[in-house]
Amino acid sequence: MAYSEYDVVKVIALNPNVPEAEIGDTGTILMLLEHENNRAYEVECVLPDATNKWLGTFEPSQLQLV
After folding, report:
1. What is the domain-level CATH number for residue 20?
2. Is residue 2 part of a domain?
């Protein structure tokens, strides 16, 4: 599935490159990353107090639209 910038997504698979992210975390897509036929998304998760929990790059299969 293709997502757009500013879509809100939920993490559905762990990403070893973003160890702070947990399944069920929600975040906002900040940037689309494309190289040849590969697509990834830079996603930011913000806590209720407006601090950053994590920022990381995810593959489409690791995310679900909220």
Report:
1. 2.30.30
2. no
